[in-house]
From TrEMBL:
InterPro entries: DUF4344 (IPR025644). Residues 1-28 form the signal peptide. Keywords: Signal. This is Metallopeptidase.
Length: 288
């Protein structure tokens, strides 16, 4: 997914689900690590630019791509899917390429996010760690949504970019608790920050992506609709208009219904008594 003059997501130097154990000497010597019997492949391309070296080391140590890949790897993929971190000749971007079946995240995007994150806490109460950690899951899961649509031949009604946002939000909200709040708070910070500087002209309405403020409210609504107790602060603090909030439970159920009908049949873990699906997503994200 390439974007018209604006970023498509964020990345944090540590994934939102706690800290993974550092790789052993053998793993540290590799630039690619295979997950799920070859169906998920991750590639960390060593950067030429010295300024990106710390990002390269941190991401490999925290196994960021492996964790997102583990969630997507719950699906029975018909072919291998590659996650790649690389330099992009100055381009701040991330995308899924169907011809190579790969999700790419650029060092340039990572570096720009580090600079834009608040030093401590934003006026809205978003911490630096949330601004760094949360959105990586959103952007990588968004691009993974495109990959799932392509590889699993999933029908899409409406704009694909909106559908990918919904898949990302629904999947990551299943993580629950602090992890889900990190995704919502960090991604909302990104959307709102970029929305303040977004030029709303005729070309913006022609873009395949929604406006940043639209993506902000869509995410906020799905979060609130998924758990009004956990995300009640979104409405209480005025971040989501009450008129929109009234229908958020229905919006979330609509996305959940589509996810269960179109994607769950492809998963190796099926819904069962209790929260079996949620537990599977959490265990995958934690590398267990």
């Amino acid at each position: 997914m390439r974007v018209r003059g604006r970023l498509s997501g964020l990345f944090g130097l540590a994934l939102l689900i706690g800290a993974a154990p550092p790789p052993g000497p053998a793993e540290a010597a590799q630039t690619a690590r295979h997950v799920d019997a070859g169906r998920i492949r991750v590639v960390y391309e060593a950067p030429k630019k010295a300024a990106y070296r710390a990002i390269y080391e941190d991401m490999r140590r925290q196994r960021v791509l492996e964790r997102i890949g583990a969630i997507v790897g719950l699906a029975r993929l018909p072919t291998r899917l590659t996650y790649r971190l690389k330099e992009c000749a100055g381009e701040l971007n991330a995308w899924y390429a169907p011809e190579s079946r790969s999700v790419t995240l650029c060092y340039e995007l990572v570096e720009s996010v580090r600079k834009a994150a608040p030093k401590t806490t934003s006026p809205a109460g978003v911490t630096r760690q949330e601004a760094l950690r949360g959105p990586v899951a959103q952007i990588l899961m968004h691009e993974s949504g495109h990959a799932l649509f392509d590889l699993l031949d999933i029908p899409i009604l409406g704009r694909e970019e909106d559908a990918a946002d919904q898949v990302a939000a629904y999947a990551l909200l299943q993580l629950g608790g602090r992890e889900a709040r990190t995704v919502v708070n960090g991604s909302a910070y990104f959307f709102a920050t970029n929305g303040k500087d977004e030029t709303v002209d005729q070309g913006a309405f022609a873009d395949v992506h929604g406006l940043f403020w639209q993506r902000f409210y869509n995410l906020a609504c799905l979060a609130y609709g998924s758990n009004k107790s956990a995300f009640g602060y979104i409405v209480a603090k005025g971040y989501l208009p009450k008129e929109r909030a009234e229908g958020c439970s229905e919006e979330y159920e609509q996305v959940a219904f589509a996810f269960e009908r179109l994607i769950v049949p492809h998963l190796r873990v099926k819904p069962g008594p209790g929260k079996r699906l949620q537990h599977a997503f959490r265990r995958a994200a934690r590398g267990r």
